[in-house]
Every structure is written in C-alpha cells, then in structure tokens.
Design goal:
The chain contains eight helices and ten strands. It has 222 residues and is an alpha/beta fold. The longest helix is centred in the C-terminal third of the chain and has 16 residues. The structure holds tricarbonodiimidic diamide.
Length: 222
C-alpha cells in the first residue's frame, strides 16, 4: 500500500491499481495562439504544471504506472459539438471550428488539438479524445480503467475548475478514488484553482484528496 500525505487525510492506493491521468495538456489550452489565449487569457499561469508533470511522467514510466492522456476536441464536421457550446465559444471570440493560429479551434487533427511536445504520449499510453469537459462523457475511459483493474486516479492537467474538476466528479460517481496533484494542475486564474482545491477535499474528501507530485513520488518510492 502506498500512503501519500494529502488533505484532508492520507491517501492510500495500490500502485498497480493506480493510473496517472493527464487532462488536456494540448496546444489549444497551454500554447500561444490556442483556444485559451484567444479567450483573452495570460498564458503564464496555465503553463506552470508542465515542468512538474514532466518529472511525474518520467517517474510514472520508470515505475510502470498506467498513464492516460486526454484531449478535448470535436470532429471536423462538428457533428459532436453541441450548437450551444459552439455559440458560446464564438461569443467569447474563440469559436470552436473557426480558424486560429494553430488551425481550426478544438478540432481533432489540428495543431491546436495535439498534446504539447513536452508531454508527448508514448506507446502504451492511451489518448482519450473527448467531446466534453469530463473525461468519462462519451468516451471509453471507464471501460479501459475497469479492464486494467484501476481503482485510484492521480488527476492532473488543465483547467482545474473545468475539465479537471468535471473529471474528478465523474470519477467519484463511478467509484474511483481521486488524488488531485496541485502542482500539476492550473487554471487561467489562480482563484479558480484554489476553489477546486478546497471543494474536492471538503466534507472528509467528498470528491477526493489533494496533494502534490513530490509527496506522491516520495510515498511511491518507499
Ligand atoms: N480542458 C478544459 O478545461 N477545457 C476548457 O474549456 N477549459 C476552460 O477553462 N475554458
């Protein structure tokens, strides 16, 4: 059993039944010219998880932890994009499917949709392409996790209060135990992240636990 110092109390997991999920570290959210920047955001804060995630990913690969990457995006014909979602994105100046500096915004196959070079997936690490914010909605993530006997998730990526929080809530309802690693996640506005760090762990870990990658790796090495 691995015991990680966490809030609101120690998080316990078996490494063989634990997966690292890296959510939406794609150009559209963390690279210049992407959806995130077109929404008017300063890109410095959102890039802070990259360096800790590189270390954690190396550790996960060396220790045979199951790694999963996700990307948010839609079919080129947009048939899987609710018109309501597209309408709201256009209103914000970053219309899904519109042409931006990194190709069509949030469209599969475009440069903006690719995972950033620093965290490129390797063979054996599935990429879950999701049309929504939560990673379980209309994907085969649950099936993949159950087939691998996964019970616990190390949750990382962007943005903390949108796709990361949605995924934690979905995972919790499906019986997975989630450890959110605070140095490996970011929102465009740090205040949005802070709220999630509290929400997840309140009421005795109502949705999960909060720790960081250093504490996790220390515990996993023991
Ligand atoms: N990946 C993810 O969080 N998708 C978003 O749209 N995030 C925003 O913060 N807009």
């Amino acid at each position: 059993m691995t015991i990680v110092k966490a809030k609101p109390y120690d998080f316990e997991c078996q490494l063989a039944k634990t997966a690292l999920i890296i959510i939406d570290m794609q150009n559209d959210f963390v690279a210049p010219g992407g959806f995130g920047e077109l929404l008017g955001n300063d890109m410095s804060v959102i890039r802070t998880p990259i360096a800790p995630l590189q270390k954690l990913l190396k550790f996960a690969r060396e220790n045979n932890l199951f790694v999963i990457h996700t990307r948010e995006g839609h079919r080129p014909d947009l048939l899987d994009c609710p018109i309501t979602k597209q309408r709201r994105s256009k209103r914000q100046g970053a219309g899904i499917g519109d042409l931006g500096p990194n190709g069509r915004i949030l469209i599969r196959g475009e440069q903006g949709h690719q995972i950033i070079d620093e965290l490129t997936p390797i063979e054996g690490e599935p990429i879950i392409d999701k049309p929504g914010k939560g990673s379980f909605y209309q994907t085969d993530l649950d099936l993949i996790l159950r087939n691998r006997g996964i019970e616990s998730l190390l949750v990382t990526g962007v943005t903390t209060h949108v796709c990361v929080e949605s995924t934690i809530r979905e995972a919790n309802d499906r019986g997975y135990e989630c450890l959110l690693l605070e140095d490996c996640t970011a929102a465009f506005d740090p205040k949005d992240k802070e709220k999630v760090l509290w929400t997840v762990q309140q009421q005795g870990a109502i949705f999960g636990w909060v720790s960081d990658s250093v504490k996790f790796m220390e515990a996993a090495k023991k």
